[in-house]
Amino acid sequence: MGEQNPARVTVLGDVNLEVTGIINPRFNSLTGSCLISAPLKVHVGGTAANFAIAARAYFRSVRLVGAVGTDEQGSWAEATLRSCGIDTRLHRCSGHPTGTVVAIRDGGTPHGSRLMLASPGSANTALTLEHIMSNSDVLTATEFVVADGYSLLSEPRRSAVLEAIRSASRCGAHVVLDLVPHHLETLISHDELHVWLTHVSIVVCEAVTARRLLSLPLPSRPLQPPEAWDTAEHLAREFPERSFLLRFGIANIDQSLIWQPNGNSTHRFTGFSQATETYAFGDQLTARELARHFTDHRATGKDRKRSAPSSGRPVS
Questions:
Q1: Separation of CA 190 from chain center
Q2: DSSP notation for 235-301
Q3: Which are the contacts of 34, defined by CB distance < 8 A and separation ≥ 6?
Q4: Residue 260 neighbours by CB distance under 10 Å
Q5: pLDDT digits (tens, 9 = 90+) for 216-255
């Protein structure tokens, strides 16, 4: 466990039952029905749950606002998260089941391709503004609010999470948004991206996703540091006064560029290529980077009453 930071974190987003596994053959080598013996794990997952579990190792307190069903899976997920020391604020939705995801990775190198199957119509999509605002204490008394793009793709969750982000920013929190899914440029418009980032101060993103969102050219190989810096510069011109945690290199996560508006930026290797366990690696990386690079000001109260970032204007 890392050294705990005195800051508090509130996480908004998905809570799922997840089944994960790895198979030796490549997906493209499977030509028909087959039975493969492979180790499987069943655990609590989802974007919010994975980040909350990772953040618990670094921050004083972690609160999670989300939705699960009234089924046994929802009860198990809530109990598991609480056993990890997370303050759960989960809406028990009677009209939708707890989200279920199956994620299988194949035997490619360095860590293979991943196939994910997600059940539609889960309780995650039913998270409402009423439930979020009934837990307004974890939005107004926190140093970080963390959300992701999955929560902003459809109503009613989109409006609910955007309002939560707005409220948290006005109360002085750093709002962190992870720009996922990674094919986001096919799902939202450029104008919608500006809506998402209006009150966001820290953006987490694969550099290739950012380049596609900004209509920048992409090489056929993994991005290198100069291209990551170029990406950050374009982002900073279009979305000023924000920090960017850009992932790039092998598997789009083996290197990280932490771009800060004050010019104090850092590039490092993340260790992904050498990792034997890569599940939720990105969430662990983000939690560690936030604790290391962005909580000093919060702990000392230097920017507690900071203003929200400006909306920025598109680069011509």
A1: 20
A2: HHHHSTT-EEEEEESGGGTSEEEEE-TTS--EEEE-SGGG-S--TTHHHHHHHHHHHHHSSHHHHHT
A3: none
A4: 17
A5: 999 999 999 999 999 999 999 999 999 999 999 999 999 9
Identify the CA nearest to 160 among candidates 200, 124, 128. 128
pLDDT in tens, 67-98: 999 999 999 999 999 999 999 999 999 999 99
Encode pLDDT of 187-199 as tens digits: 999 999 999 999 9
Tokens of 151: 């929560």
DSSP state of 58: T
Q: Which helix (H) or strand (E) holds 98?
A: none
Q: What is the pLDDT of residue 309?
A: 72
Looking at residue 278, its amino acid is T
Task: Judge whether 3 and 59 are in contact, CB under 8 Å.
Answer: no
> What's the DSSP call for residue 182?
T
Structural contact between residues 203 and 197, judged by C-beta atoms closer than 8 angstroms: yes
- CA distances to 46, 51, 245 from 12, in Å: 11, 10, 19
pLDDT of 315 > 50? The answer is no
Q: Give the whole-angstrom CA distance, residue 10 versus residue 164.
A: 11
The pTM score is 0.91
Considering only the C-alpha atoms of the chain, give the largest distance between any 2 of them, rounded to a whole number of Å. 61
Contact assessment for residue 93 and residue 115, using Cβ atoms and an 8 Å cutoff:
no
